[in-house]
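Quick one: co-fold with pyridoxal-5'-phosphate.
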Amino acid sequence: MIYGLIMTDDRVPQRRNLVTEIPGPASRQLLARRERSVARGVGTMLPVFVADAGGGVIVDADGNSLIDFGAGIAVVSVGNAAPRVSARVAEQAARFTHTCFMVTPYEGYVEVCEELARRTPGAHEKRSALFNSGAEAVENAVKIARHATRRQAVIAFDHGYHGRTNLTMALTAKNMPYKDKFGPFAGEIYRVPMAYPLRWPGGPEACKANALNIVKSLIHTQVGEDNVAAVIIEPIQGEGGFVVPPDGFLPGLADFCREHRIVFIADEVQTGFCRTGDWFACEHEGVVPDLITTAKGIAGGLPLGGVTGRADIMDSVHVGGLGGTYGGNPVACAAALGAIETMAAEDLAGRAGRIGEVMLPRLHKLAETYPVIADVRGRGAMLAIEMTRPGTLNPDPATTSAVARACHQAGLVTLTCGTFGNVIRFLPPLVIGEDLLDEGLSILEDAFASVCG
Ligand SMILES: Cc1ncc(COP(=O)(O)O)c(C=O)c1O
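Sure, here it is.
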């Protein structure tokens, strides 16, 4: 059953099928070649080499078909090689592949910016600028906020992740593997505690009651509100462990920013484009950011990032102050228009909500069975479980990776994350069939039974 809708072509059968061990001989050969030619610093979570992919299935070089609960880290929300994306990309690639929007512009870029204005929260007048990645979008959002406010300080959060470029490494909280020995980092970044209910001293209730006041007080005493250009936050933290702040935290933060003319940047690179059950995660609490950064899900797998925001803030930057050779590449824009069309036509926000309805009860049941699961959290199709030593908050990354490995061996692509490496996250393509979703959850249950049983 695939929710009664056509969501993918029939090119890749939507079923799991293992014909070798994981990784199989062909993947192992490629891995050996990779080790001789690709830099070691580029890691790999599951070393099966991909030959084909579609909908919720990845086919490897040995002919194994795996269920995809990762979507290339929340990118192929519309499914891999989604028909509307592939068709538009092929058509665009056959016409022109690059002129540079800063030299001779083209309509696709403008259309994507129009879509961003239409889909992002808030009815105010907006402008967008397009880039190549999430990190580039975040860098530019900070540039724009500093330019607009003529202030320099930027507030970022514990457990936050914003990318791997120099400025975004400075914004990112976690040292290993993202920052270690890569400094010096960009200046004027100040880190404050994240409202992390499980780990807040005193627990979730104390988190709800105190987190916002503590953040505001730290900004006041250690930075000074009128030195702050921007506060940047992921509405649900991604790499840091799918941390969902308590209701009221984001709206309170946005109010604080408004009061002090601080630019509120929502980094929706991972949460955006239907992932959490709304087009954007900020919508869940009616938060309207001044600037919003997007990438990942926007273009169905092609590299594209964007900054969208209030026209006065965006247009404060002088002509030529923003851009880059490839930003808003025409083929990536065509892919984005295909992805956005797919999301609207197939109600993928609704589909993300449905995925959450299917997955959450089974994840909660797992947590009742295995006390190593300290928390089940997330929203829509952005869900996670956090593992600790039972009855404590001491992270258990060993069990986490053992469970993830058992899933991989059984043909389920799962990802881990979290500051302490003790979170398994689930980011299936939003077009995944309910049968595959069920099967993937059964594999996860078996993995727990074999590792913790
Ligand atoms: C919230 C968030 N911001 C920024 C980034 C960086 O995006 P990219 O890897 O496209 O540079 C990521 C990537 O995981 C992310 O999750």
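If it helps, The mean pLDDT is 97.
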